[in-house]
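Field log, afternoon session.

UNIT: design team B
ACTIVITY: writing a sequence onto a fixed backbone
BACKBONE:
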C-alpha cells in the first residue's frame, strides 16, 4: 500500500536534498518576484515556461527513480538533463492532456444545457474531471517508468488501472496536506514572528516546500504505479 510516510522521509533524507530544494526553488522564487512587479509581466511568462519545464522534469525524474528501484529519489544537479526531461515529457503527454481536457470541458458544457441545478452540475464536474484526470495520471505513470512516448498511450493499462489510480490519488491529497502542515506551520510561524509576512524569506521557504512536494508526490505516485499497474500486470501474466 502506498505510504506518504515513506515518501516524506525519503524525500528529506535523500543525498543533498536540502541543497537541491534550495537550488530548484530559485526559479520559483524568481517567478513570484516577477509576478508581483507589473513592469516585468512579460519576463514573468518567459520565466514561468522555463520553470514549468524544469519542475515537470524534476517531478518525472523523481517518479522514474522510485519506480525503477533506484537508491535515490531526487535527480542530479544537471539542470539541462532535467529540462530535457520536462520538454520531452510535455511533448509526450501534451496530446493526451489536451484531448482529455477538451473532452471533459465538452461533456460538462453539454450537460450544462440539460441540468439547470448548479449543485448537481458541480457534482458532475468533479466526477468528470476525476475520470479524465485519472486517465491523464495513468498516462503520466506509464510514461515516467520508461520515458518512452508510446507508453503514455497504453490504452489497455489506462482502461484497466485509471480508476484504481483515481482512488489512490484521492487518498493521497489529505495525506500530503497533513505532511505539508507539519513543515509549513511551525517554520512559517517563526518567520512571521521575526520577519513578518509577506517577506522574501517566507516566499523562498514556500518555494522550497513546493519543490519538496514535487519530490514527495513523485515518490508517492511511483508507489501508486507499482500497486495499481505493475501488480495488476503481473497478475494478468500469471493468469
Amino acid at each position: 500500500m502506498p505510504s506518504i510516510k515513506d515518501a516524506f522521509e525519503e524525500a528529506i533524507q535523500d543525498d543533498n536534498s536540502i541543497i537541491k530544494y534550495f537550488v530548484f526553488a530559485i526559479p520559483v522564487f524568481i517567478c513570484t518576484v516577477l509576478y508581483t512587479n507589473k513592469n516585468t509581466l512579460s519576463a514573468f511568462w518567459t520565466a514561468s515556461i522555463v520553470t514549468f519545464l524544469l519542475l515537470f522534469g524534476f517531478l518525472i525524474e523523481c517518479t522514474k527513480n522510485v519506480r525503477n528501484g533506484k537508491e535515490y529519489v531526487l535527480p542530479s544537479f544537471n539542470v539541462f538533463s532535467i529540462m530535457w526531461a520536462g520538454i520531452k515529457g510535455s511533448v509526450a503527454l501534451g496530446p493526451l492532456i489536451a484531448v482529455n481536457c477538451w473532452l471533459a470541458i465538452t461533456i460538462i458544457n453539454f450537460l450544462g444545457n440539460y441540468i439547470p441545478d448548479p449543485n448537481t452540475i458541480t457534482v458532475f464536474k468533479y466526477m468528470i474531471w476525476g475520470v479524465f484526470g485519472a486517465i491523464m495520471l495513468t498516462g503520466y505513470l506509464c510514461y515516467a517508468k520508461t520515458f518512452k512516448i508510446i507508453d503514455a498511450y497504453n490504452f489497455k493499462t489506462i482502461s484497466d488501472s485509471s480508476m484504481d489510480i483515481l482512488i489512490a490519488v484521492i487518498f493521497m491529497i489529505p495525506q500530503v496536506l497533513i505532511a505539508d502542515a507539519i513543515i509549513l506551520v511551525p517554520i512559517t510561524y517563526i518567520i512571521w514572528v521575526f520577519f513578518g509576512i509577506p517577506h522574501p524569506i517566507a516566499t523562498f521557504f514556500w518555494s522550497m516546500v513546493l519543490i519538496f512536494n514535487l519530490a514527495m508526490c513523485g515518490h508517492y505516485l511511483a508507489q501508486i504505479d507499482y500497486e495499481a499497474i505493475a501488480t495488476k500486470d503481473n497478475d494478468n501474466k500469471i493468469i
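LOG NOTE: The two ends are 22 Å apart (CA to CA).
NEXT ACTIVITY: expression trials, pending approval
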